[in-house]
């Protein structure tokens, strides 16, 4: 039995480590991309990154825990979902989306004290550009894998 457990555990830890490295690499690419697009001064960067990282942490918690759990329950129970439970899930989803919106507004308010308004707009554009570039990269890798 141990012959099977250790290789499986090793495989799981390896997959987790690879995924963690991938997340860290994407994070580093995003930091680099945003830094380049915003052209932050040293003083701006020193104040900007703690605020932005705190925002990212809060948003990721909402997206990857709260919303993911709601969607997971919806997928798992969609065929047996009662109207009352569906309403509860809709309300929970609305609350999570409202929390995301509040985080975005709070970020803008905090950043107005750190960087010029134009750089805040550039940040929003840079984030969208980064998402688009990552999606294009993901799609191109996916298509290459399907052709081979």
Can you walk through the features of this model?
The model has no long low-confidence stretch (mean pLDDT 87). Helix 2 (42-77) runs antiparallel to helix 3. The chain has helices at residues 2-38, 42-77, 83-111, 117-147. With 148 residues, the chain is an all-alpha fold. The longest helix has 37 residues, at 2-38. It is built from four helices and no strands. 5% of the residues are buried.
Q: What general form does the structure show?
A: globular
User: What's the total number of strands?
Assistant: 0
Report on the biggest sheet.
none
Structural class: mainly alpha
Mean pLDDT: 87
Q: Name the beta content range.
A: under 5%
N- and C-termini, Cα separation: 37 Å
Radius of gyration: 20 Å
In the predicted model, the low-confidence regions spanning at least 5 consecutive residues are: none
H/E element string? HHHH
- The number of helical elements comes to 4
Helix content: over 70%
List keywords for this structure.
148 residues, mainly alpha, globular, single chain
């Amino acid at each position: 039995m141990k012959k099977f457990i250790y290789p499986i555990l090793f495989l799981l830890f390896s997959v987790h480590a690879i995924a963690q490295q991938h997340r860290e690499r994407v994070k580093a690419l995003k930091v680099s991309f945003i830094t380049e697009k915003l052209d932050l001064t040293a003083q701006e960067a020193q104040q900007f990154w703690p605020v932005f990282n705190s925002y990212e942490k809060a948003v990721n918690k909402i997206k990857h825990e709260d919303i993911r759990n709601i969607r997971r329950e919806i997928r798992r129970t969609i065929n047996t979902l009662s109207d009352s439970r569906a309403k509860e899930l809709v309300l929970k989803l609305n609350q999570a989306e409202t929390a995301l919106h509040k985080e975005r507004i709070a970020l803008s308010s905090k950043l107005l004290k750190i960087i010029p308004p134009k750089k805040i707009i550039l940040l929003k554009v840079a984030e969208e550009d980064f998402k688009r570039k990552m999606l294009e990269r993901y799609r191109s890798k996916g298509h290459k894998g399907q052709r081979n």
